[in-house]
From TrEMBL:
Protein's UniProt keywords contain Nucleotide-binding: yes
Pfam annotation, one family: ABC_tran
GO molecular function list: ATP binding; ATP hydrolysis activity; phosphate transmembrane transporter activity
Residue intervals of the ABC transporter domain: 3-243
Organism: Desulforamulus aeronauticus DSM 10349
Protein's UniProt name: Phosphate ABC transporter ATP-binding protein, PhoT family
Statement: the UniProt record of this protein carries the keyword Transport: yes
Keyword terms, alphabetized: ATP-binding, Nucleotide-binding, Transport
Biological-process GO terms, alphabetical: phosphate ion transmembrane transport
InterPro entries: AAA+_ATPase, ABC_transporter-like_ATP-bd, ABC_transporter-like_CS, P-loop_NTPase, PstB-like
GO cellular component, one term: membrane
Length: 248
C-alpha cells in the first residue's frame, strides 16, 4: 500500500467538508475520484500532500500514511510535496524557459550538476510526451507553449523530482480533445511506475483510464470499486443516480 487514508476529516469554519474518509491506494495503479461539484474532491487531493496548509481556516484530523508513515507527523512539508506531487487544473508556466520550468523543483532540492540536470530535463520531457515538440527550443520562454503543452510541462516539472505518488486535479478541464487524449495516454503509461490519483469531472475519462474509481458525495466516500464494475454494476443508489446523470 503506498498511500492510506484513515479517518480523514476536514472542516472550513463550521462546514465539514470531508467526513471520515478511509481509502487505500496501491503502487502501479491509476485511481479516479469522481463526484459532483463541491463534494470535496479538490480538498481531498490537497489533504494528501499537505497543500491544504496553504489555505486559511481549515481544521484537519486523521492520518494520511505514505508507506506507513503519517505525512502529518513529518516536519518537512516540501519533502512531502516532492514525494507526493500535485498537478493543478490550470496549466502553470513559470516565467522561465521551458528547461528551467522542468528543473525548478530539482534545483530547489539542490541539484547543481549540469550533466545530471540536462539528463533529468530530457528524461522528464520524454516521459511527459513533450520532448519531440520542444527539444529545439528548450531555452525559449515556456509561456510560448499551448495550454496542452503547458499542462504536459507541469507534469514534467512534478516528475523531475521523482515523486512516488502523482495527484492530478482535473488536468484536462482546460484542454481540447486531442490534448486530453495525449494526457490520458501519458497517465496510463506513468501508472506502470507510480501511484496516480486523478480527480475528474469527466466520467468518460474515469472509465477510459482508471483501474479503480471512488465516488465522493457531500464529503463522504459512497462507493469504491474496480472502474468497470462501478460503472456497470454500482452497488449504491446514489452512485447509480450520479453515473446515469439523473441527479447532482
Ligand atoms: N479555502 C476554503 N475556505 C472555505 N471553504 C472552502 C475552501 N476550499 C474549499 N472550500 C469549500 O469546500 C467545499 C468543497 O470544495 P472542493 O473544491 O474540495 O470541491 P470539489 O468537489 O473539488 O468541487 P469542483 O468539482 O467544483 O472543483 C466547497 O463547499 C467549498 O466552498
Amino acid at each position: 500500500m503506498s498511500l492510506q487514508i484513515e479517518n480523514l476529516q476536514v472542516r472550513f469554519g463550521s462546514s465539514q467538508i470531508l467526513k471520515d474518509i478511509q481509502l487505500s491506494f496501491n503502487e502501479r495503479k491509476l485511481y479516479a475520484i469522481i463526484g459532483p461539484s463541491g463534494c470535496g474532491k479538490t480538498t481531498l487531493l490537497k489533504s494528501l500532500n499537505r497543500t491544504l496548509e496553504l489555505e486559511r481556516g481549515y481544521l484537519i484530523s486523521g492520518k494520511v500514511k505514505l508507506y506507513g508513515e503519517d505525512i502529518y507527523e513529518h516536519r518537512d512539508t516540501s519533502l512531502i510535496r516532492q514525494r507526493i506531487g500535485l498537478v493543478f487544473q490550470t496549466p502553470v508556466a513559470l516565467p522561465l524557459s521551458i528547461k528551467e520550468n522542468v528543473l525548478f523543483g530539482v534545483r530547489y532540492f539542490g541539484e547543481r550538476n549540469k550533466t545530471k540536470l540536462n539528463e533529468i530535463c530530457e528524461k522528464c520531457l520524454q516521459q511527459a510526451g513533450l520532448w519531440e515538440e520542444v527539444k529545439d527550443k528548450l531555452n525559449n520562454p515556456a509561456k510560448e507553449l499551448s495550454g496542452g503543452q503547458i499542462q504536459r510541462l507541469s507534469i514534467a516539472r512534478v516528475l523531475a523530482v521523482s515523486p512516488e505518488v502523482l495527484l492530478l486535479d482535473e488536468p484536462c478541464s482546460n484542454l481540447d480533445p486531442a490534448a486530453t487524449q495525449m494526457i490520458e495516454e501519458l497517465l496510463k503509461g506513468l501508472a506502470k511506475q507510480l501511484t496516480i490519483i486523478l480527480v475528474t469531472h469527466n466520467l468518460f475519462q474515469a472509465k477510459r483510464v482508471a483501474d479503480v474509481t471512488t465516488f465522493l458525495l457531500n464529503g463522504q466516500v459512497v462507493e469504491v470499486g474496480e472502474t468497470e464494475t462501478l460503472f456497470l454494476n454500482p452497488q449504491k443508489q446514489e452512485t447509480k443516480d450520479f453515473i446515469s446523470g439523473l441527479t447532482y
